[in-house]
């Protein structure tokens, strides 16, 4: 694919705008020449939220030193989720230059033409991106607001167990000074809200961006099928061979896009999959023992983010296999012998599907969801036996 002439990315406008806010994607004026300071800006934004996790870690350490094990599962869940989401974003950023190339290839309509129904599908992806952003915001608000509901319960626990928890915070934290008074506690509360939105909102939108990338690759595979059928149904022998050769070149270019897709997102997904099982196990244990609104919201948000990527990976695999399922749409028995032989090669190649992978964890499909849930159940069982 020729990306030198592509100066504007014409796909996923809404997800890209959201990723530009925390400097995870360059502005439109820097697309063709991303500046190095975008990495520095993102690190500053991410570093500004680091105490969200550090405070939870220190809270857990000091409580364990005093022999207090209350809320340790919540501390571990917050630490795992924050660092998992942060590293997920960081691995994405390391591959940003390849992601820009991939998005430019998706935006190249000169080499092989514009995919059928591109405008409708791209509009739909942008529309669902807005819906998903609203859903994520609802999840985060549900995670952060219930802290006020648990203030009476928190104060009662402090009296009964001799604890010193600061009530009214979404995330238990530690500071080297007393802060259970106005306005310091309110400032800490707002900081924790800011940090949650910076990390979780952005990580969730990146998950949707991966799904949308799979959808654009699926759109290209469908276009390949259309061009193959159009070529093989052509009556003129010379034109048929020319169209067929171009469709084969297009198929090879899309396969290379699939390779680039994995180069961009496979490291991110490796982080995602490796930490999702332990995280869901810890938060699932909290959910089974207390059913708190905040932990439940975080659990649901993480599960949905995982599912949409697995859903995109499953659809991508099925779409790449379906390229070879065109025999019922053509009169293959009327084709010349050499063209029939070349068609067999395409069918054979399509039996090796394009996958979205997660490093050594293999393809991301529906089976990945089952594997994660099995791993999570193991962690829930372990925690249930030891805590």
UniProtKB/TrEMBL annotation:
Any one GO cellular component localisation term in the record: plasma membrane
Keyword Ribosomal protein: no
The keyword Transmembrane helix is annotated on this UniProt entry: yes
Chief subcellular location: membrane
One of the protein's GO biological processes: signal transduction
Membrane-crossing residue ranges in chain numbering: 42-62, 82-103, 131-151
Pfam hit, one: 7tm_6
Topology in membrane: Multi-pass membrane protein
Keywords of this entry: Cell membrane, Membrane, Olfaction, Receptor, Sensory transduction, Transducer, Transmembrane, Transmembrane helix
GO molecular function: odorant binding; olfactory receptor activity
Subcellular location per the Swiss-Prot or TrEMBL entry: Cell membrane
Stated family: Belongs to the insect chemoreceptor superfamily. Heteromeric odorant receptor channel (TC 1.A.69) family.
Entry protein name: Odorant receptor
Naturally occurring in which organism (per UniProt): Pyrrhalta aenescens
């Amino acid at each position: 694919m020729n990306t030198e002439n592509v100066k504007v990315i014409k796909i996923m406008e809404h997800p890209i705008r959201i990723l530009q806010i925390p400097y995870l994607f360059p502005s439109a004026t820097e697309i063709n020449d991303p500046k190095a300071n975008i990495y520095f800006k993102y690190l500053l934004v991410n570093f500004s939220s680091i105490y969200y996790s550090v405070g939870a870690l220190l809270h857990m350490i000091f409580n364990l030193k005093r022999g207090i094990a209350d809320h340790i599962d919540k501390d571990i869940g917050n630490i795992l989720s924050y660092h998992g989401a942060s590293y997920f974003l960081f691995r994405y950023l390391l591959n940003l230059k390849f992601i820009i190339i991939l998005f430019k290839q998706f935006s190249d309509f000169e080499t092989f033409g514009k995919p059928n129904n591109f405008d409708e599908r791209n509009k739909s992806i942008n529309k669902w991106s807005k819906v998903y952003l609203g859903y994520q915001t609802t999840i985060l608000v549900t995670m952060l607001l219930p802290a006020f509901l648990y203030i009476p319960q928190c104060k009662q626990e402090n009296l009964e167990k001799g604890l010193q928890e600061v009530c009214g915070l979404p995330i238990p934290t530690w500071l080297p000074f007393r802060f259970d008074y106005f306005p310091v506690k309110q400032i800490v509360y707002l900081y924790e809200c800011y940090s949650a939105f910076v990390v979780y909102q952005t990580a969730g939108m990146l998950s949707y961006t991966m799904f949308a990338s799979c959808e654009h690759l699926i759109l290209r595979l469908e276009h390949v099928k259309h061009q193959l059928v159009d070529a093989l149904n052509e009556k003129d022998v010379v034109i048929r061979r020319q169209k067929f050769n171009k469709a084969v070149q297009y198929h090879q270019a899309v396969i290379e896009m699939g390779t680039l897709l994995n180069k961009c997102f496979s490291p991110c997904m490796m982080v995602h999959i490796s930490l999702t099982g332990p995280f869901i196990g810890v938060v699932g244990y909290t959910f089974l023992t207390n059913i708190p609104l905040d932990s439940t919201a975080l659990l649901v948000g993480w599960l949905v983010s995982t599912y949409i990527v697995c859903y995109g990976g499953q659809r991508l695999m099925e779409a790449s296999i379906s390229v070879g399922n065109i025999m019922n749409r053509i009169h293959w028995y009327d084709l010349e012998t050499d063209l029939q032989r070349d068609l067999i090669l395409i069918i054979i190649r399509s039996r090796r599907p394009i996958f979205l992978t997660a490093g050594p964890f293999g393809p991301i499909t529906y089976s990945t969801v089952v594997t994660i849930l099995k791993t999570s159940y193991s962690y829930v069982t372990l925690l249930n036996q030891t805590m």
